[in-house]
Amino acid sequence: MKIIVIGSVAAGTSVAAKARRNTEEAEIVVYDQGKDISYSVCGIPYQIGGEVENLSDLTPRNAEWFKKRYNVSVFTEHKVTKIDAAAKQIEVTDLVSGEKKANDYDVLVFATGASPFTPPPFNQKYYDNAFQVRTIQDARDIGNFTVAQPKKALIIGAGFIGLEMTEQLVNKGLDVTIVQLENQIMPPMDADMAFRVEEQLREKGVHLILSDTVKTIEGETSVERVITTNDVTIEPDIVILSAGVRPNTELAKKIGVEIGTSGAIAVNKKMQTNLSNVYAVGDVAESFSVITGKPIYRPLGSTANKMGRIAGDVMTGGNLEHRGVLGTGIFRIFDLHVGQTGLTEKEAKIAGYEVEVLYSIKPDHAEYLGGKELTIKSLVDKHTGRILGAQAIGQNGVDKRIDVIATAITFKAKAEDLFHLDLAYAPPFATTKDPVLYTGMALDNALKRNPLLTPADLVSRQLNGEVLQIIDTRSKKDFEKEHIEGAFHIPLAELRERSKELDESLVTVTYCNKGVTGNAAQNVLLNYGFKNVYNLSGGNKNYQSYLKMIDSKK
Hints:
- By secondary structure, this protein is of the alpha/beta class.
- Strand 29, helix 16 and strand 30 (about 535) form a beta-alpha-beta unit.
- Helix 1 runs parallel beside helix 8 (about 300-315).
- The radius of gyration is 27 Å and the shape is globular.
């Protein structure tokens, strides 16, 4: 059997390595049009910023290493230009010599990855100070350019790469401006959580321009000045284009490989395409949601490695299957760690779920040992109790909580299951009621007895003229500093004796600063016979953040 793999980064090399582990009989050949193989795309921003000292640290293996270790022939700077699926033959061009040659195969694997999208008008001309961040060669080019010590940077796009590059360039002393087409950074997140990151960016001096795009570029060989659609003028020394990626499907389309609804190659759980003995893995292939079962496209190195291993196993007689993804991701932006898994609130509602939403604002570990605030937005299906997703922002402990919740979602845990997890506890690492345990407890309570109201729901009800009885349970000082419009001030300690001042027939909303005391007040009123009592999720702190977000988008 002869296996040919097109592409040699995470997925392609994983295919070759797993196939070789399973059999010594197969001939395995890998072609890549780039110079480097098996490198860390995700590490590039940190090498550019100086956190990774040497670029070679991102390219620990080369073609010679693969040949010696796995007896796999890897040809770099070789581009597959044609495929004859009927004859099972490819045409390869040596990009150095220009020589073309044919090669037969029994099994063909598309690991062609994805290419960065070049938005207009940058796609109309080459500029020597505009860069993508996708390959090791990109890192070399940016590194060589920054030797001249540019002072102002323009970043197009505020996804993972755009924000990571923002952090690194600010740390290097550059004045950074971000232009983002959508009205929020990190479009895969809910806007109210992304807003917390936007505040961090502004605090660090980043100029954030949302709901805008570059309209015109001035300069012949370099980008000297750009003017946005909203007439904002920016004069950058260096431009980073990070407007997302598109799967490299052109070669596959030519031989009739089916493209999925996500725009990537459609595959089954064994990474097989619609053509016999043709596989697709990594950033060129679509995945599917663990929750909904529907196709999704989430190009990440971790998923690419997994897909490659599965394909390499299946083609050599194994029975591995892809089990889908949750879209779990995490990034660091200055002082904050930001993670998410599963569905966002907007995705869940689009998918038809009726959800209960909790904002948990808790220290990541004991405050007397320096615990810092950790905000988790989580959601649960009201009908089944199943956890659907979570987003978390904090200075520490985000990865731990997101990974625990991702594991729980994968095994179809319900809200109550989170509370019963036996998680590691000691004051330097967690609180006695870990944020994950609290999330499970509060969501379970919300489903059974203690319904929650999000700031968005509260504002919507108020704008619609609904009569609400809103109770602020905080101290007089906090109430006088700021409170929700129309709220009554009744501290929790006085609520029992003053409950008769309230109308049991009205929809009642209790709140405190972050949610805990509001929940206690909710219980008091429910115990006294009030029928319709909500606790404001995340309390006044979350509510004020929501109002700031609304104001910032006007």
